[in-house]
Automatic annotation (TrEMBL):
Descriptive protein name: Cytochrome c554 and c-prime
Superkingdom of the organism of origin: Bacteria
Record keywords, A-Z: Signal
Annotated organism of origin: Pedobacter terrae
InterPro entries according to UniProt: Multihaem_cyt_sf, Multiheme_Cytochr_ET
Amino acid sequence: MKGIKRILVTLAAIAIVIIILSRCMNAADALPKDIRGEAYAGAATCVKCHQEIKQSFAHNAHGLTSKPVYDQELLKIFAPDSNVFNFDAHQKVVIEKRAGGIFQVAYVDGKEVRAEKFDMVFGSGEKAYTYAYWKGKKLYELPLSYFSAIRNWAISPGFTNQTFYYDRPIGSRCLECHASYVDKKVTQTSGITTDEEMERGALLYGIDCERCHGPGRQHAVFHLENPKEKTAKFITIYKTLSRKQKMDACGVCHSGNTLVAQKSVFGFTPGDNLDDYYAQDFVGFGGGNPDVHGNQTNMLMGSNCYRKSENMTCQSCHNTHENIKGNLKIYSERCISCHQSIKHSEVTLAKGSLSTNCIDCHMPKEPSKLITFQQAGKDHSSPYLLRSHHIAIYPDIKK
Ligand code: HEC
Ligand code: HEC
Ligand code: HEC
Ligand code: HEC
Ligand code: HEC
Ligand code: HEC
Ligand code: HEC
């Protein structure tokens, strides 16, 4: 009897183990694969449980910052009367819808000399859209970009206004800040020159959940199996990070383009030390003279709000999941949370409604030194304006 009982108990134990194991396998197996590897789950899995974030994130600039070009969307922004860019009396680029898609077509004296298709778009359109086309495993920038401020086409930033240019390669560096992943192969051609090839089919567009939260497959599997567990497991908790770690998590893409990447930042996860990825340029550090473009980190770190407070981070004003673009009143409330009593002079106070817009005076829009854009028929280039994150008392607003 005893023997049979023991066998039964053993069998039951084995059965339980098998059931548990198979449940694990099922939960893990049921998840779709992610091109970044075993540790990742993909945004579609994350939003199954995080529905509220799915809603807000659908309209967030991060998620929308790169994608393939969908003709219907592109057609919305180019009107038939604003689809020509004249470089001079002889040369022009025309946006044309043809059978195979939409193209930027270059003409010299009325004769077509080059046509490349809109394949991919950079930018959520807040300020601009820049477009690219694929040639084999390489990506190139199209000559015209769309600028929201003028609601029209202009020459892509940094391009000459003398003639159209189709051969500026877009490397994986752009994608490191504007996408979630791309599979690439770097080969050494001669000496120190290298050649980079990117896999169009292995590109994750937009900045997704795991780009900011780190790989989350283990987290997803754990919570699928333990639906009653309300405490997050196997995912970095932002609140527990140090100030530097929090700044680095945003700084990975918001510290400017002048930093030299030592290794791909696709692998950066919150909690990592950014110095391990970039060789810092100390010239621009701490407010030396950083450009407003894409360099909010160093601009902010140079201002007294940051230096004299102990806990200011990007999150003091930004919750990356919400979309409050343009709502300067809400932003101002975040200033007031630290500045309950302010000593403004009579002159300043006389300007009225101070409390609802601290931003325009203390974080004025400034032109980027690196980016300007050239409109058709204009001999000067137009500035590309960004909020200065160097919060300060600006002399010209004192008057
Ligand atoms: C099976 C459900 C489930 C899936 C799938 C899931 N999560 Fe979660 N997640 C939870 C639960 C439960 C919590 C804890 C309660 C809460 O904070 O909402 C949590 C919490 C979190 C937190 C908060 C941590 C903190 O600061 O407290 C983050 C960040 C997070 N998840 C990210 C992700 C990401 C990224 C993915 C996709 C890779 C993902 N989750 C997939 C269930 C899930
Ligand atoms: C993987 C790169 C990357 C990371 C990491 C990142 N950002 Fe961004 N962020 C971008 C890019 C690119 C844009 C421009 C998006 C566009 O409009 O196309 C952007 C835009 C923004 C904007 C302006 C759009 C808006 O929603 O108002 C804010 C604010 C912002 N980021 C804050 C943050 C903060 C705070 C963090 C850290 C928690 C962060 N970002 C992390 C790349 C990144
Ligand atoms: C641009 C970076 C960024 C992206 C992209 C991003 N998050 Fe977050 N997320 C954050 C930061 C930063 C926090 C911490 C906010 C805080 O503590 O103030 C956070 C907090 C959270 C939390 C904790 C609860 C909350 O709302 O504060 C959850 C859950 C979460 N994220 C899930 C997701 C999911 C799911 C996605 C994809 C749909 C996603 N995140 C995309 C930066 C990001
Ligand atoms: C170091 C990170 C980084 C790199 C590299 C980078 N960008 Fe950006 N980019 C940003 C950030 C951050 C913004 C948000 C606005 C700002 O701060 O200028 C932005 C803004 C933009 C915008 C305007 C988006 C909008 O919705 O208004 C476009 C278009 C753009 N970048 C294209 C590119 C292209 C093309 C490349 C490569 C040639 C590139 N970027 C390289 C970080 C980067
Ligand atoms: C996390 C808290 C915090 C937040 C949020 C904050 N500040 Fe400050 N700010 C400070 C501290 C601390 C100082 C330094 C005060 C001192 O020198 O006594 C400061 C200084 C200033 C100064 C004086 C600058 C100078 O160079 O002398 C101005 C102006 C200012 N803040 C405006 C703002 C505005 C506008 C906002 C919102 C966009 C804001 N602050 C958000 C903490 C904060
Ligand atoms: C003291 C408040 C405050 C802090 C801290 C702060 N920002 Fe901002 N940020 C703003 C305001 C205000 C705007 C303008 C919003 C608008 O016009 O809708 C802005 C705009 C932006 C934009 C859009 C670019 C533009 O010029 O319109 C980006 C990108 C951004 N912030 C990133 C960051 C990052 C990254 C950090 C941390 C290094 C950070 N911010 C810290 C207040 C802040
Ligand atoms: C019309 C432009 C303007 C607006 C709007 C404005 N400020 Fe100021 N602020 C100034 C000027 C100019 C000074 C220098 C002192 C003076 O001349 O009033 C100053 C000084 C300050 C100082 C440093 C003086 C002190 O108290 O330590 C802080 C902090 C500050 N402002 C915060 C804010 C905040 C927060 C808001 C929004 C609630 C705001 N300001 C709105 C123009 C402005």
